[in-house]
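for the record, two folds in this file. i put them one after another cuz i was lazy. first one right below, seq on top, structure tokens after. the second one comes after a little note so u can tell where it starts
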Amino acid sequence: MATLSTGETYAERFWGRMKREPLIPAGASAAFRVFGGVVYHARKGNQRQLQLWMRARVIAQGLTVVAIVWGFYRLQQDSVKYNEKIAQEVARVDEEKARERAAFEERLREAEVTYEAEARAAKSWFGSKGGDAATPTESSGKRWYQYLGWSHSSSKSDSDKKA
């Protein structure tokens, strides 16, 4: 059996559509019935019945117009509901972004406080050795091994040169 890309068969789609839009099959069957009555009585030459069937055709056309107006009204109501749903989704996403932004700012404040505490600790540690205290992110030109009194060069240290 042939299936659509949605995974349903043509018959399932047809009957599903008929359940969602009940005026479509009712209007179509009424139109075919009226058309059949007009053709039948016109061929037979029965003018009285032909007039009745022509009036039925006008009534069926009026009901078609009513069904179209009702369909547009329903479509508009669905559109309003859809727009409300989209607005709620946008509000939810904006609220989630605001929560994430607030959480990020809180983490940033905590990181700044921690950085300041580490900078003070580094300043007090480096300051106790008598040199210019440099924070971990400030560049003083020294390397880590120079703080321990080691020299990078393989030549004699400054104290050996003085002697």
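(here's the note) second protein begins now
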Amino acid sequence: MKNLFCILVTYTKPIHEIEQILAEHRAYLQKGYDAGFLLVSGPQNPRIGGCIIGHFADKDAAIAFTHNDPYYLNNVAIYEIIEFSPVLHAKCIKEFVQD
């Protein structure tokens, strides 16, 4: 199975600054979905950041992905990257987690 990565996004600027580049951020994430390496993403509740789950070649690739995110490029968020090995998973994501 592929290792997965949970990317925790924490906003460092007020929400009105986040909202100004939200469409760019989501368009950037869409490229990851289109390429097949992102599984799910969305805002935290309360809205202090977000969470992105996907698979990358390694942690360096996950870091590189975050460094091209419009949030990073506009200095409005920081990222914590957690790599984990999926042991159990729902049948609906079987293809996503398998090598």
